[in-house]
Design a protein that fits this description.
Strand content: 5-15%
Order of helices and strands: HEEHEHHHHEEHHH
Oligomer: single chain
Helix content: 40-55%
Number of strands: 5
Structural class: mainly alpha
Strand order of the largest sheet: 3-5-4
Number of domains: 2
Number of helices: 9
Amino acid sequence: MGQLISDKFTAWQAECEARFQQLKANEEELNRIFIDIYGLQDELTPDVADKDVTVHRVFDSKDDVPESMKGSNYVRTMRDEIVSLISYAVGCMFGRYSLDVEGLAYAGGEWDADKYKTILPDSDNIIPICDDEYFDDDIVGRFVDFVRKVYGEDTLEENLKFVADALGGKGTPREVIRAYFLNDFYADHLKTYQKRPIYWLFDSGKKNGFKALIYMHRYQRDLLARLRTDYVHEQQERYRTQLAQLSDAIDHAAASERVKLNKLQKKFQDQAAELQKYEEKIHHLADQNIEIDLDDGVKHNYALFAEVLAKIK
C-alpha cells in the first residue's frame, strides 16, 4: 500500500508545532523561575513572543503565517518543505544521500557502492535538465522514480500532484515539476547553501538549450569531455532532427497550424544556436582536463568553470 506525501507533511507539521509549543512552555517556565528567584514580578513578565521561539514552525502557505510569527527566521511553508524533499531526492540521485544509510553517504573520499540498494546513484554524475524528456536519466524522470520507490506506485500520481501544487505553476504535475527544475531549483539550491553550491549547474543560457547538474564531490577530470560527447552532442543531434521534421511539417501544414509550428521552429533554432556557442566553450575546457581539489573550497573550484556554469549573483 502506497503512502501519501500529504500525510507525511501533515504529521511533520504537527511534530514541529508540538516542538514549538513545548519549547515556548519551557522558556516561559524558566522565566518564571528566575523572576521568582530574583523577585522581579513587578518588572518582568515570563511571556515569550512566538517570533522569539527558536524552532521551526510549518504553515501551509505564507498567507497562513500569523502576525505573532512575522519577523521570525523559523517560519517555513509547505513549499519550503517540498523544496527540501526535492533537494534530498537530487542528493539520492547523485549518491550524496542514500535511503539505505543514515546521514551523508558520500562527500568525497572512497566510494562505497554497497551503500546504495533502493536507489542507485547516477552512474556518470551528469543529470540533464531539459524542457522535454530527451535523455534516459532526465531529472524529472528520476524524480518521478524516486517518488515511486519511496512512497509507492499506487499513490504516485496523487503524490506528484501534491508536489506540483506546493510548488505552484500551470500544467500537469510533471510539467510543473519540470518547470521548477528548469527555472527555480538552482536558485533555491544557492539559497540553501549560501551561494556555495555542491550541485553545479552547467547552463547554456536563457533559451534553455542545455542544462545539466553534477555533484561537485564526484567530479573527475574527464567529466566535461563526457558531458560534451554524451549529452551536448546528443542534444545538438536532437535539435537537428526536430528542425528537419518541423520544416517538413510546415511545408505540408494548413495555414492555421503554421503559426504554431513556426513558433516551435524558432524556439528550436534559438536553442540550437545557443547550444552551438556553448559547445565551443565546453570543448575548450574539456581539452584542459581540469583537476579540482575539494580542500580549495566551492568558490575557488566553481570559478574554474565559470564560463560554462550558471552565474552566481
